[in-house]
């Protein structure tokens, strides 16, 4: 874990990876979206409204994955004191919040023709909304910590405690009576027809790579800002 603790060593890997992830992610998302939105068959029950699946599922997946990454980075910060863990957690927060908002918006658009309403206080929908507010709270705590290069211990603890909501989101359709359909992709397999599944998986991978590129860009930006701030402090002290 500490192999890339040195910012210079980390940046030598992050710079090329950012470009690779960005280009590969864009290619996959464009291909998957064009096929899914224009060429994939309509659903027998939901018709063409099912096409928003190719955007909605990846965004919600990354909303949950983003907070999981924050929790893991927070544990690394508190337990192993990894120098870049706090930087990584801070870098994930904003794109995580954006993808959560996109998941809520696309879900609401999908719900209108499917459920007959824009919003219901369904277990899955409500727990994702809670996740969005958790992201906003985390961002506020991180900005209030005064450490531009990372986050405080209180913020890291909040990142770990907030992870309790992730299994709640995952199991909400099982624990409560829900309008939201149960999980279609599980460890045992998938109930989605291959005509829908493969473009969906292309988009999931593509959006994940874009998310990774954004996080790497934000980490590089935070490190650059920290370096400039440290240099200004040294110049002021001279």
What secondary-structure arrangement, pairings included, does this model have?
Blueprint: H1 7-39, H2 53-80, H3 85-115, H4 123-144, H5 153-161, H6 165-175, E1 185-186, E2 189-190, H7 194-237
Antiparallel strand pairs: 1-2
Helix pairs in contact: 1-7, 2-3, 2-4, 2-5, 2-7, 3-4, 3-7, 4-6
Structure description:
By secondary structure, this protein is an all-alpha fold. The protein has a domain at 57-177 and 195-225. The chain has seven helices and two strands. A two-stranded antiparallel ribbon has the order 1-2. Strand 1 and strand 2 form a beta hairpin. Helix 2 crosses helix 4 (123-144). The radius of gyration is 20 Å and the shape is globular. 35% of the residues are buried. The model has no long low-confidence stretch (mean pLDDT 89).
What's a quick, concise take on this entry?
The chain is mainly α and 238 residues long. It contains seven helices and two strands. It has a two-stranded antiparallel sheet.
* Oligomeric state, counting identical vs distinct chains: single chain
Instruction: Give the strand content.
Output: under 5%
What is the count of β-strands? 2
Mean pLDDT, rounded to whole units? 89
Count of helical segments?
7
Order of helices and strands: HHHHHHEEH
Helix content: over 70%
Cα-based radius of gyration, to the nearest Å:
20 Å
What is the end-to-end distance? 36 Å
Inertia-based shape: globular
Strand order of the largest sheet: 1-2
> Spans with pLDDT under 50 lasting ≥5 residues?
none
Helix/strand/pairing category: mainly alpha
Q: Let me know the largest β-sheet.
A: 2 strands, antiparallel
């Amino acid at each position: 874990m500490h192999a890339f603790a040195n910012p210079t060593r980390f940046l030598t890997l992050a710079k090329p990876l950012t470009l690779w992830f960005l280009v590969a992610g864009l290619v996959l998302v464009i291909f998957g979206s064009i096929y899914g939105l224009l060429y994939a068959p309509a659903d027998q029950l939901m018709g063409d409204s099912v096409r928003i699946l190719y955007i909605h599922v990846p965004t919600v997946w990354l909303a949950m994955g983003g907070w999981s990454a924050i929790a893991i980075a927070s544990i690394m910060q508190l337990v192993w004191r990894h120098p870049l863990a706090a930087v990584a957690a801070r870098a994930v927060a904003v794109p995580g919040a954006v993808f959560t908002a996109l998941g809520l918006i696309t879900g609401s658009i999908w719900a209108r023709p499917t459920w007959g309403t824009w919003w219901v206080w369904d277990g899955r929908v409500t727990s994702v909304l809670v996740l969005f507010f958790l992201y906003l709270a985390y961002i506020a705590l991180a900005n209030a910590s005064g450490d531009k290069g990372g986050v405080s211990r209180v913020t890291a603890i909040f990142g770990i405690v907030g992870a309790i909501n992730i299994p709640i989101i995952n199991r909400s359709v099982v624990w409560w009576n829900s309008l939201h359909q149960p999980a279609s992709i599980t460890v045992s397999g998938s109930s989605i027809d291959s005509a829908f599944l493969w473009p969906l998986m292309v988009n999931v991978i593509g959006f994940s790579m874009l998310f990774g590129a954004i996080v790497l860009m934000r980490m590089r930006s935070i490190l650059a800002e920290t370096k400039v701030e440290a240099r200004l402090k040294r110049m002021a002290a001279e």
